Amino acid sequence: MSESAQAEIFNASNAPDIYETGGRYGQQGVDFQRYWAVSRIIELVGADVPDFLILFETIQDVLELDSANAPTRARIYQLKMQKTGEWTWKSLTGLPAQPRKKKGSTDMTEPVPFTKTPIGKLAAALAELDQIQAEGIFVSNSGCSAELEAGSTAGSVPICALTALCKDRRDEISPELAKLKKPIGPDVLHLHRTALSLDDLDTHIVGKVYGLLEVAAPSHAGQSRPFADSLFATVSARGRKTSPAPDFAGLVEHCGYSKANFMEAVEALRSIPDRQAVVASWLARLNTERMRISDLSRLQNKLAQFFDRRLEKGEPNPTPLVEAVRIWVATNPVGDSILDFLNAGTIAIQAQLSGTPRDEIHVVLLLEGVSQCLDRT
Questions:
Q1: From the CA atom positions of the chain, what is the Rg in Å?
Q2: Are residues 293 and 263 in the same domain?
Q3: Domain encompassing residue 144
Q4: Tens digit of pLDDT for each residue in 243-286?
Q5: Are 162 and 189 in contact (CB under 8 A)?
């Protein structure tokens, strides 16, 4: 990136009404923004783009550059959640900007300036950039009811440029776009209805991470949830702009996340032994040690159910069985025989928690034994 382009982005990130700071939305709205950013990072990596740099809450909510060092294109995103209904054209643009009588009064309301509306803010941000090609995208879980030239509405398609809107809407916004610091065409502004669900943001992202790790680190796909949690925490930290950055490098350090950062995280994940893979090797060992085939089959089935639940809901809360097993394993580590370890542990736990099914004890013993071995490595 040339120094002039760096300076342009840095200056825009500090321009009034262009930069964003946290704390203006409810927690669900903040989570929506951050989970969407994680989703976008996964999409970029999955598409195998050569490079990218994401800047959080600098120029609007998310600024996406096509390179960490020498970008030629930028996408500016503004993200807003909508709990019910669709966005109206008026709510997004303030157009047509006509004063109305205040309720119960003869006084007239003051129309909201275009540059104070969601689409107006995006357009004003685009007008700050000359050095690189840029487009602005309004992202929400809900679509917009504005009519399309081809029929239906903008909310009926996942993404559309404002040039696809009907002539009346284009005629309303074009004069406003021409008044900005730099004239902006409607072709660089888009409305995007994301598939990200407000009902279960976390599970949506874990599923996307799992799909990516199946390709990038298949032996560690079982660690999708902790990896997703770590990525979400990193994005959240980058989105907290506590004080102005002194320069562009400082902006990247405090608010940026690149493809290189993601690949470093994947490499760090590869260096961590995968518990699920170790469990599989222990099951093979139990077969060699001639564990009864019926017991082994039930153990395999129970473990598969456990890992499916963990992928969906995360680690379960400790139960009396888990606590009892942890205490026993701490003083009775796995020896040369995994089968002997399971048999001895089952006898000890059944003496404490009578009536507990043998299969459940086997599962918890095996998982705790594996965890103890991994903690020693």
A1: 27
A2: no
A3: 3-269
A4: 778 888 888 888 999 999 999 999 888 766 667 778 888 999 99
A5: yes
